[in-house]
Every structure is written in C-alpha cells, then in structure tokens.
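Deliverable D5.2: sample structural annotation.
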Amino acid sequence: MNNQKHVQELSSERTEFKREIGVFGGVSIIGGIMIGSGIFYLGSYVLQRTNYNYGLAILAWVLGGIISLFGGLCYAELGAAMPKAGGRMVYLTEAYHPCVGFLAGFSDWLIGGPGSVAALAIALPTALKSFVDLNNTGIKVFAIVLIIGLTIYNCYGVKLSSILQNISMVAKLVPILLILGGALLCGKITPDLSMGNEMASHGTAGTISMLAFAIVASLWAYEGWTNLNTVTEEIKNPKRDLPLALIIGIGGITVLYALFNYAIYRVLPYETVVEMIKSENYYLGTEVAKLIFGNAGGMLVTAAMVIAIFGSVNGLVLAQPRMYYAMSKEGHFFKSFGKLHPKYKVPTTALIVQAIISIILVLMRDLDQLTNLVVFQTMLFNFLVVLAVPILRKKMPEIERTYKVWFYPVSVIITALIFLGLVISTFFDDPVSAVTGFIVPAIGVVFYLYFDKKNKKEERTA
C-alpha cells in the first residue's frame, strides 16, 4: 500500500527525467563537489584569521558547517515542496519574479558553472605536476580533454553519472580517512584549544569579529551544497531523499573538516604550523601525510587531491546544465536547452554548450578574475533563497511541505543575516569585483527582456 502511494506521489510530479538518484547518490553529489583539494590547505587561512588560536579555528570550522547546514535546510524545504529541476532558479522565480530566477540561472550559465568546471579542470593536471612534466600548454590540453570526456560520459544518462560520482566519492575518502586516522592514532601532541588568551587580548567584541572573519574562510570549503537541488527531478523520492542527502552530506562533511584539522594539530608542533603558514606553505595536511607515511604520504595526498578534483568536475558537469534546462522551460531562454535526449533523458544541448564555454575559459587568461566576478551575486542569490522560505510559506501555504526548516523562524533569520553580512563584507572588501560582477546579470536582463518580448509576440500571433 505504501509503495502504491509513493508511485502515485511521484506520478503526480510530472517529469521527463529519469529518477535514478537515491540518498547515497545525493550525498555523493554534495560531497563530490564540496570535498576538494581545499581540505589540505584551507585550514591555514582559518588559522591565520584566528591569530593561530586552535580553539577558535576549530570553532570556525564547526560554525561554518552549521551555517551551511541551515542554508542547506532552507534549500531542503524548498526543494521538497517544489521538486523541480533548476534548484534556486525555481524558488527565486516563485518567491519574487521570473526575472530574478532567470538572472541566477543566467549568471551560472555564462560564467559561474563553466568557470568552476574550467578552474577545476585546470587544477587537476596542476596537482600532477610533481609526478608528470607538464607545461602550461599541456595542462590546458589535459583540462580540455577532461571536460570533453566527462561531458560525453554525462550525455549517456544520470544513472551512469551518479555511479561515477559514487565511486569517486568513496575513492577520495579512502586516502583522506587514512591520513585522518593515522594522524589521530600517531599524533603525540595535545593541542591547546582554549580561547582565554584571545578573549583577554582582543576582548569579546574583537574575538567575535576575528571568529566571523575566520568563518568566512571556512565557508569556501563548504561551497557546493546548493548543486543537489538542480537535479531534484532525477531524485527517486525527492520529498524524503533530498532533505536526507543534504543533512547527511553537509553534517558529515562538517565533522570531517573539524576532525581533519584537529588531527593536524595532533601531529605538527604549534611552532611548525605558524612557521609554515608565515612562509606561505599552506599545505599542512600534506606535511602531516609525509610525516606519518614518509614518501608514500606525498603520493597519498596527490591521489586524494586528483580524485577529489575529478569528482568535483563530474559533479558540476552533471548538476549545472539542469539549471539551464529550467531556464528554457520557464520560457526565457533558448528552446533547445529545454529538450532532453529521447533515450538518455539528459539536457544534451545544455551539456555541450557548457563544455564549449568551459573550454573557452580554459584557453583564456585571468581565469581567476573571471570566476571571481560571480562570487558577489552567488552570495546575494543565496541570501534571497533563504528569505524565500518565509515568503513562500505565506504566498503558497497550500503546497505540501513534507520537510520544514528546523527552529523556524530563528534559524532562517540568522542564516539570512549571515549571508547578507557576507554580501556587504565582500562589497566593502572588494568593491571593484562586486560592481563589475553586476555586468553578468545586467547582460542577463537584456536576454530576459528579449525572450519576454518574443514570447508575448508569439502569444499574440497564436
């Protein structure tokens, strides 16, 4: 009887996609994108910002994870209530205006998605440079072949994509957990996690400010959790599996990051950590692996980094085109993007165009500058998505909400204020990039108005 009810629910959620992704597949997509090479070096930036206080650094990692989790819970409520491909674009469209949702998708289509794919595709062969002699041309050729290969692979259906993501997720965790376990077992140091000295030196307000600055650094390691919602229509039971995957994925990664950094403190003496970071040697995790496993440790870290980056690239190639598909279905983008392959049920045109833009970005210089352009509006759109939770509860009370955000409305208010704080902080820290970043949505407005005018003309002639 329960199975029959479940089938009826899914049949009522009409979709052209194949529902092939389960809870573990969802966790693999989140973890595959979130856990990258940053686990080995981002802890250094968090430590710098806490004045090398271990206690504050660990707290920053935990709070960064909690903030990401509550952001994820907002996405979970919206995704379970509106299980459609496109993720935040769908929620912004329903809560505010179709133009707002379109601009989020357009920013991702033009630079955000392809820029991330291009940057990671370049990072993978760069990680291999210590083992393979590659010049800049060789790195770019490698990156282009990787993009083409994964795009072709993803054209053969979400089930194959999900299998590859599951394999890469497990494969990347093996070396990371080996290093983590080895450090916890072999480490002889008892790290000082007290925060009293910082409180005494900087006062309560100064310490909170320092901690907030460190949390911003930790949040970059948690980036990627928003991508699961773009494949909601391909999740077997989105009303149950989407929230579960977000909670397990983000919660598990929070524990992993906090434990991994604690393990580093167990192995490396405090003076060594400070000296390494001040000399701009940020790869504390690599140093720990070498101390525990000798020369094999360096190879272990490289293997973990390569597999982690590979999983991130595949996850983005899989997830991002679903947003472009949703833009087309909404009616303000090229119709070809809204067509699925008749057999494999994937947005083939969106996948191919994303690959072409990614390859163009690989061939261009100043890739970092290009990808930085979308940072400002990405945080702005996340802020708007969190606010969409109370807006849609009032605007669409009749929708079945099988999952609701914990500790509402306090959790939503705090999460929204944090994202707004990040937007304001970014604007003042780097006003040029923030203002320049508006060029992309400005171009998007032109596209939206063009398609809007075209749609109205077609309606009049119909």
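Annotation notes: The chain has a mean pLDDT of 85. The CA atoms of residues 83 and 232 lie 5 Å apart.
The annotation will be released with the project's public dataset once the embargo ends.
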